[in-house]
Amino acid sequence: MKNNEEDKMGMKLKNIGILIVLIFALGLVQGASARDLIVVAAKSTQDASKDWLGFLESKEIPVKLVTPDAFSDYKEELYIVVIGSLDESKEIAEIAKEALSADEYASVSQSNEGKMFYKPQAWNVGQKVILFLGPDQEAVIKARKSTSDDWFEMLKDWFDIQDTQGFHVY
């Protein structure tokens, strides 16, 4: 009788151990913590945005760079910024189509200017998503710079930044 109870207890402990290992492994596979800012950008936009990315890191915002083709693994993360031109990669255009209304997408795809969009809950409840989009990289960067007060206030709130000093327009 005792051996049977000991066997059951051993199996329970073994199952708990396996469960703990699986939970840990799933956390490693996802690759981003719940507090990371997922920045989705093609390599050329990442290169053109080095100053901005450095600024985010200087404010201790944990940035996880993701290329548009890998975005599906991160689309349910809490904090996401999508940055790029619609003609830069078909994946950026597809992400924009998913996140924006048809009118919003048309407004950026048929314009010569870049725009910033804020889309809470684009793919997940409680999610906060900013998109900087435009017809070309120059327009995208201009949109990011011209809306810096708006997006920085959002990031300050999301990441509890107590920055009261001014900052260079990124």
Task: Give the strand order of the largest sheet, numbering strands 1, 2, ... along the chain.
Answer: 2-1-3-5-4
- Average pLDDT, all residues: 85
How much of the polypeptide forms β-strand, as a percent range?
A: 15-25%
Order of helices and strands: HEHHEEHHEEHH
Count the DSSP helices.
7
Count of distinct strands: 5
Q: What portion of residues is helical?
A: 40-55%
Q: Which stretches are poorly predicted, pLDDT < 50 over at least 5 residues?
A: 21-31
What integer value in Å does the Rg equal?
Answer: 21 Å
Please state the overall shape, judged from the principal axes of the Cα atoms: globular
**Main beta sheet:** 5 strands, mixed
First and last CA, distance: 71 Å
Structural class: alpha/beta
Notable features of this structure?
alpha/beta; about 170 residues; about 15% strand
